[in-house]
Amino acid sequence: MILGIDAHKRSHTIVAVGELGRKLGERCITAISSDHLELLEWAERFGRTRLWAVEDCRHLSRRLERDLLGAGETIVRVPPKLMAHSRDAARTFGKSLVTRCREITARGNDLETEIQLLIAPLSPALLAVHGCGVLSAAKIIRETAGVQRFHSKDAFAKHNGTAPLPVWSANCVRHRLSRMGNRQINAALHRIALTQARHNPQAREYLARRRAAGSSTTEAMRCLKRRLSDVVYRALVADHESQGSAPLSLVA
């Protein structure tokens, strides 16, 4: 087992590495003898056969080396150039990772713009719903696969899993979360609900009323999602009819 030491004026960072190069632990200590002794106790957990690799900066590591050698430990000095190589490699990897993240972000923004150009003419009413962005609208349209398939808003709510399931316990009637339905539409409705809960005064007022009536925060959010399912359904119907399709009868 090897313990690599990055020595500094006021502190030292130690990393324990196993035979296969796997990191076993890391610790940072101040450059005083008492902490050096605590470091030896910490190193004991990794076994008694160990080698200390210290960056060859003797003006920084002199006291540490003296304490380790006094305790019977084995030390090798690593040329700073080798340490610099490792730091440069890590820095290069970090820069390439940042560049890749920027490329992915730019590509994602381009795709969102393309989706917006396709979705905007098809779903103006849906995009007008507070909190419904382009990606959520695209997900809802794709997963709905034609609002004309649903004869009512209740059928749509059952399809997307926002229709609550009644639960009777003693004389108390409550509703529990439905795990059924299309989870992609459900997730889109959840994102809309979260946005409205933060920024829409009407939604905030509705949630406050539900909590005042005894509902938990989770139950209030489920009720908001159920109402939003109706809002989204009506928006889908309006968009469907605006495309010149036959009007759909909205069943209350």
Write the SSE topology.
Blueprint: E1 2-7, E2 11-17, E3 23-30, H1 33-43, E4 51-55, H2 58-70, E5 75-78, H3 80-119, H4 124-127, H5 134-144, H6 153-160, E6 165-169, E7 172-176, H7 183-199, H8 201-212, H9 217-242
Parallel strand pairs: 1-4, 4-5
Antiparallel strand pairs: 1-2, 2-3, 6-7
Helix pairs in contact: 1-2, 3-5, 5-7, 6-9, 7-8, 7-9, 8-9
What does this structure look like?
The protein is of the alpha/beta class. It folds into 2 domains: 2-78, Ribonuclease H-like superfamily/Ribonuclease H (Nucleotidyltransferase, domain 5), CATH 3.30.420; 124-242, no CATH class. Helix content is 56%, strand content 16%. The protein has 9 helices and 7 strands, in the order βββαβαβααααββααα. It has helices at residues 33-43, 58-70, 80-119, 124-127, 134-144, 153-160, 183-199, 201-212, 217-242, and strands at residues 2-7, 11-17, 23-30, 51-55, 75-78, 165-169, 172-176. The strands form 2 sheets. Strands 3-2-1-4-5 form a 5-stranded mixed β-sheet. Strands 6-7 form a two-stranded antiparallel ribbon. β4, α2 and β5 (75-78) form a beta-alpha-beta unit. α5 (134-144) packs antiparallel against α7 (183-199) and α7 crosses α8 (201-212). The radius of gyration is 31 Å and the shape is elongated.
